[in-house]
Structure to design on (1008 residues):
């Protein structure tokens, strides 16, 4: 075997330096060094993540208590002993739940069109995909401007002019939880589309063909066979969009978040307090940063736990889905 | 599974619709909106007052002095909290809306402190020196009797009332030096100065570790005055401002009038100190 | 139902299944509706551009005037002698408002207008329209300044709106972020996709992607409260909050973006490339560096471009950790004021429809254009790369 291979060994022309490099023995020092360096970079990223999480966890843990999570900040939002984050948890939850009502149907239907109906090569499909990719890259502050210019000024303003022509007091044309949710829905549309598409593509074609062969129409097949199968993927998309939206502050700065308000948002036209925005307020507006530090860290920890819990759930569902997909194929 | 999710959705939408209806009708008896500087104080006033008068409901929101004036013009709020006096343009809008000048009530005093790092040997500065520092004409502590180190200037965001006040009353309307770092709140300024030995910043009264509030001299000849409560209330400390509440005079009766009177009474003024501001001098109270 | 089989025969693919059958108008209708809904993504991109740009149009086309020159005062006593039309333009009222107001209201308005004019600046620059392009882009010697300078001071007697310092600030913070994040993410992408054992890869990848799950306001908080204090002793002569601190935190935010796309591009290079290289006796590293990376280089480029777009558009981190001073300085140790932070910090207090408000929308429009173009480039590059690799593989 050995002699054979040495006889058959291909001799490269000596003037081709690239080829010569490839033949350097596999355990050479350069390879060893760079493998180590890239591994180091990977671990550096994980270390950064670890340091951030550990810092927040260690400093925030002591401030976390049942009272902190279940009380509001009626007394003074900077008072370490009485202030709580319940209104912010409720505000943030309300705005993301409202958002999913808008974004999931539109995102799922778009994904269905892209995978089940559209031909991948058609111009329209390419434009839709381009738009989705582009939407994913629009800066979050531009969404904030858009929410203000479109939803509040244009849509809200028109609604006021239409329904309450004689009332100078704007009801719709002002920052509100409805507009913040809609702005976030536009922002997270690509997340839902991409996740749903991925799960739709994972469903074997045979399943669809079997359904058709049994006499079901295409729509029936999509509704009864494809969608139920894709449910985990849709769920993942929804959760990822919630996790992304829950932590976003820039788009809601001008569209609905309140610096402070008593009570909870009771109507779609009310403003709301928000966890992320509250982190910003606590770290920049507190009268005594040292004194309110435990409050700040605890609030950050709550926000992080919320977004991370959602993320981990999404990763788990997705992992399970991928394993199932592999098993099917 | 399918039916349950459907019912759930229907229920949710019904609830949303219902809440939207009640929300539109539901409103506090008195609404106050405006300056973020005043929001904590206004909230405290509302709370104490509501405890005494359970029939009155008061709702407070922030958003900035300008936002409060806009709401006053649009008649979406009864009271506009402000950390600066109303501008003629805003008065004009109010006149267009309700044919009268809004009534101005001074409700508290606020002293602006100038902070330096605790290790900084400079103890007092004149208003003119502050002007030179914050407009960038003086850039080294040496020129002010300190050590040989460049000055790092901290300012506030230009949307804040504090920024405008400092610019008008200390800089005489001139621009802040471009290299001034603009931070979003008193806390950020205090924290930055506490960590930077050559820093200087301004903001509300703050008692944090690592910083010292400078004594301020009106001019080179006058004595340095510390921003203590006594000095601010008797107005010997040179950098102070009023905090205001503006109201539509057509509404200034009954419950609203009673509330405004209470705020400026000894009882209302006793709340002010807890929040870090200063009560009105006795002769200004109602 | 049986008729449907005819349709399937017309095309081998499932995609064509429901096309062209008039026998089921309901399905046809639903299909069209689905298509219409799927256009919403296009509609939204279009609307975003339309409504953000719309608010900035008056400045874009030079129809806005921000000059604050004083006019001659009309005193309340002479109100009866002034022709109504002159009074109307003086007070800036509409014709219907003019009709509606009684004499008393007009007198009040004239009084207030006089106060406004009394407060107006008498500066030599008062007549300058500072929102015209010349003052947005070129330096000018303003009153109180020793030389022509690029100044962003919107809340001032003379509103100074030079956008150059803001662009410089955004670019500086982005540059630091890219210099830090690109090498480290690329190295990690090479390691995870080419060098690590498959099982290690399955653990590493989601962990790195978790970094994307940290909200930017939390990264901003971390940069402001922790990083600025930790890094400051390294450069005690410089500003505590500066382009380095903000840029590093921005780097944390774009690492998952650059990593994911680069890793994706490297993984999509057919396995046979690596196998061929290994069979020729190269090490795993050599195969990754000399064979796989060159094949995937457009994807790496796209990752960098998208990272750039994400970094320049990020708001909360730079708002909290950059120091926000609008300086014309090339030093990375100076504070920076970025476009995004400027919009976030200033918009809340501006007057709807005023020049400051429109100026911030103009910044938003420019930002949108920059990220739109970088997205488009990245999109095209990835598309071509995929097509090429699939063709070859």
């Amino acid at each position: 075997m050995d002699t054979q291979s040495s006889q058959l060994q291909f001799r490269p022309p000596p003037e081709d330096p690239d080829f010569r490099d490839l033949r350097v023995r596999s355990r050479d020092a350069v390879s060893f060094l760079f493998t180590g360096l890239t591994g180091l970079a990977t671990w550096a990223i994980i270390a950064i993540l670890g340091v951030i999480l550990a810092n927040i966890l260690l400093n925030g843990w002591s401030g976390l208590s049942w009272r902190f999570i279940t009380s509001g900040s009626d007394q003074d939002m900077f008072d370490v002993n009485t202030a709580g984050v319940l209104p912010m948890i409720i505000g943030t939850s309300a705005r993301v739940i409202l958002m999913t009502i808008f974004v999931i149907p539109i995102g799922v239907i778009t994904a269905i069109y892209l995978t089940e109906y559209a031909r991948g090569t058609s111009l329209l499909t390419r434009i839709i995909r381009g738009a989705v990719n582009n939407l994913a890259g629009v800066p979050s502050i531009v969404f904030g401007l858009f929410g203000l210019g479109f939803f509040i000024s244009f849509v809200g303003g028109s609604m006021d002019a239409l329904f309450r022509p004689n009332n100078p007091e704007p009801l719709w044309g002002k920052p509100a939880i409805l507009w913040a949710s809609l702005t976030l829905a536009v922002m997270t549309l690509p997340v839902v589309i991409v996740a749903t598409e991925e799960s739709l593509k994972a469903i074997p074609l045979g399943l669809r063909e079997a359904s058709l062969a049994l006499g079901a129409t295409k729509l029936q097949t999509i509704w009864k066979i494809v969608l139920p199968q894709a449910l985990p993927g849709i769920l993942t998309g929804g959760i990822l969009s919630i996790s992304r939206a829950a932590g976003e502050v820039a788009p809601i700065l001008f569209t609905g978040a309140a610096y402070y308000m008593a009570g909870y948002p009771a109507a779609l036209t009310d403003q709301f307090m928000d966890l992320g925005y509250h982190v910003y307020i606590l770290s920049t507006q507190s009268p005594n940063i040292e004194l309110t530090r435990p409050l700040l860290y605890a609030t950050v920890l709550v926000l992080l736990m919320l977004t991370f819990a959602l993320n981990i759930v999404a990763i788990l569902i997705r992992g399970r889905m991928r394993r199932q997909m592999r098993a099917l194929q | 599974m399918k039916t349950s999710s459907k019912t759930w959705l229907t229920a949710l939408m019904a609830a949303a619709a219902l809440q939207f209806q009640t929300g539109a009708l539901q409103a506090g008896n008195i609404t106050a909106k405006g300056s973020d500087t005043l929001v904590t104080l206004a909230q405290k006033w509302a709370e104490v007052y509501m405890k005494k008068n359970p029939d009155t409901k008061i709702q407070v929101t922030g958003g900035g002095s300008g936002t409060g004036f806009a709401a006053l013009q649009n008649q979406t709020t009864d009271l506009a909290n402000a950390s600066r006096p109303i501008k003629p343009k805003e008065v004009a809008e109010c006149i267009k809306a309700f044919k009268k000048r809004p009534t101005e009530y001074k409700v508290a005093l606020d002293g602006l402190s100038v902070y330096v790092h605790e290790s900084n040997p400079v103890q007092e500065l004149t208003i003119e020196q502050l002007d030179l520092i914050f407009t960038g004409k003086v850039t080294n502590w040496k020129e002010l009797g300190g050590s040989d180190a460049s000055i790092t200037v901290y300012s506030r965001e230009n949307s804040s009332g504090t920024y405008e006040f400092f610019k008008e009353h200390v800089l005489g309307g001139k621009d802040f030096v471009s290299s001034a770092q603009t931070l979003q709140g008193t806390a950020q300024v205090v924290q930055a100065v506490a960590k930077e030995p050559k820093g200087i910043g301004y903001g509300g009264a703050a008692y944090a570790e690592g910083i010292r509030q400078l004594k301020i001299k009106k001019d080179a000849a006058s004595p340095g005055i510390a921003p203590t409560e006594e000095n601010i209330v008797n107005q010997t400390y040179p950098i102070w401002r009023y905090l205001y509440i503006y109201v539509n005079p057509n509404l200034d009766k009954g419950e609203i009038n009673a509330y405004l009177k209470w705020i400026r009474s000894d009882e209302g003024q006793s709340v002010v100190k807890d929040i870090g501001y200063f009560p009105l001098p006795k002769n200004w109270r109602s | 139902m049986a008729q449907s089989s005819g349709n399937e025969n017309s095309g081998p693919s499932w995609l064509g299944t429901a096309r062209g059958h008039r026998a089921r108008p309901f399905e046809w209708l639903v299909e069209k509706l689905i298509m219409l809904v799927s256009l919403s993504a296009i509609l939204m991109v279009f609307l975003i551009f339309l409504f953000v740009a719309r608010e900035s149009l008056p400045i874009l086309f030079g129809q806005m005037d921000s000059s604050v020159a004083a006019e001659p005062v009309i005193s309340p006593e002479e109100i009866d002698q002034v022709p109504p039309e002159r009074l109307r333009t003086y007070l800036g009222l509409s014709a219907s408002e003019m009709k509606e107001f009684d004499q008393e209201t007009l007198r009040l308005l004239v009084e207030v207008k006089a106060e406004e004019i009394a407060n107006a600046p008498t500066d030599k620059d008062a007549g300058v329209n500072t929102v015209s392009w010349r003052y947005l882009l070129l330096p000018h010697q303003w009153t109180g300044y020793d030389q022509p300078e690029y100044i962003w001071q919107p809340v001032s007697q003379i509103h100074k709106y030079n956008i150059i310092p803001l662009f410089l600030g955004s670019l500086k913070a982005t540059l630091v972020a890219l210099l830090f994040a690109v090498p480290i993410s690329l190295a990690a992408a090479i390691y995870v996709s080419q060098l690590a054992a498959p099982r290690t890869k399955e653990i590493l990848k989601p962990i790195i992607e978790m970094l994307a799950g940290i909200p930017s306001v939390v990264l901003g908080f971390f940069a402001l409260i922790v990083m600025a204090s930790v890094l400051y002793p390294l450069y005690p002569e410089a500003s505590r909050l500066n382009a380095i601190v903000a840029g590093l935190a921005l780097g944390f935010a774009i690492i998952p973006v650059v990593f994911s796309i680069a890793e994706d591009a490297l993984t999509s290079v057919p396995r046979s490339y690596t196998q061929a290289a290994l069979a020729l006796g190269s090490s795993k590293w050599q195969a990754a560096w000399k064979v796989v990376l060159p094949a995937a280089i457009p994807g790496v480029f796209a990752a960098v471009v998208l990272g750039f777009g994400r970094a320049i558009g990020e708001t909360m981190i730079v708002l909290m950790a950059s120091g926000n001073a609008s300086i014309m300085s090339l030093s990375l140790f100076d504070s920076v004021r970025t476009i995004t932070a400027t919009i976030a910090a200033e918009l809340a207090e501006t007057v709807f429809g005023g020049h400051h408000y429109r100026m911030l929308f103009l910044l938003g429009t420019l930002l949108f254009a920059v990220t739109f173009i970088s997205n488009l480039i990245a999109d095209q590059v990835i598309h071509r790369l995929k097509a090429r690799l699939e063709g070859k593989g």
